[in-house]
Design the sequence.
């Protein structure tokens, strides 16, 4: 009988409100199809992980709401030298969107971003001036699922949850409203598939819980090149990756975010339904 590695997928606690099971089933199907045995472990209290051939944080949903627990888990995984994909240095680097400034410094086109240590009217005005934008989006540096993300027009008050907090300030990119947000997926460094996510009318957020919808997108050579350049900046090559990008007023694409921790992979839109994902994970063992 061929060797069947055991992999642990880290999942949310039982009381987590979002419905993660359908996406889990798609990923698990791809992994079992590649010859892996898949088990679930709750990321906030995973117990003994030493018996696994690989640990995947693919459903560590909500880590941005308990940052201390998340970093403690990363320290533990690293301290016990457990096999993790993506590797712990990649997970730690990707947890804080300050990496965007690092990408920009390396010449990668990113959404212009100003970091503010404690957001108030004066620092927001400074950020608007720096960015040359009246209408901006503010978001936590450690965030997910559009948690704490707000669109602020000129004259709008700063939302209470952002006031006095460390925040990233970005211009509202025209492309998000006109064309949507593009996501490209890579497994073991190879491009797999792409989608475009469209916000609901009157919204700027593309997540499903806010009425966003997605469809298959034929990624251009420029889009693939930009994604590849962004991924090359990671501390180690990621086994799986989602690269989100959006256009400016002229249609030029800019990196919005790299999703290297617990991305939705939309495997049902992949031509191979996730076979390349399963193969990449198996090869990482």
Sequence:
């Amino acid at each position: 009988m061929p060797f069947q590695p055991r992999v642990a997928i880290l999942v949310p606690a039982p009381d987590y409100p979002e419905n993660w099971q359908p996406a889990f089933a798609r990923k698990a199907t791809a992994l079992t199809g590649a010859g892996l045995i898949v088990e679930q472990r709750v990321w906030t209290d995973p117990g003994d992980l030493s018996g696994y051939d690989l640990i995947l944080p693919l459903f560590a949903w909500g880590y941005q709401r308990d940052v201390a627990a998340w970093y403690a888990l990363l320290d533990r995984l690293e301290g016990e030298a457990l096999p993790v994909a993506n590797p712990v240095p990649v997970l730690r680097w990707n947890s804080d969107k300050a990496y965007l400034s690092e990408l920009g410094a390396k010449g990668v086109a990113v959404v212009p971003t100003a970091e503010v240590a404690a957001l108030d009217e004066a620092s927001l005005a400074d950020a608007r001036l720096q960015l040359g934008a009246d209408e901006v989006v503010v978001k936590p540096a450690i965030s997910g699922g559009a948690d704490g993300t707000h669109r602020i027009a000129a004259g709008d008050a700063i939302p209470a949850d952002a006031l006095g907090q460390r925040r990233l300030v970005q211009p509202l990119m025209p492309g998000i409203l006109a064309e949507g947000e593009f996501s490209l997926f890579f497994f073991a460094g190879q491009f797999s598939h792409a989608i475009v996510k469209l916000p609901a009318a009157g919204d700027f957020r593309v997540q499903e819980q806010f009425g966003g919808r997605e469809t298959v997108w034929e990624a251009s050579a420029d889009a693939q090149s930009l994604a590849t350049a962004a991924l090359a900046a990671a501390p180690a090559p990621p086994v799986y990756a989602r690269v989100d990008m959006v256009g400016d007023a002229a249609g030029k694409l800019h990196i919005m975010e790299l999703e290297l921790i617990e991305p939705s992979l939309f495997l049902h839109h992949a031509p191979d339904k996730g076979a390349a994902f399963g193969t990449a994970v198996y090869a990482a063992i």
User: Anything to note?
Assistant: The longest helix spans residues 21-33.
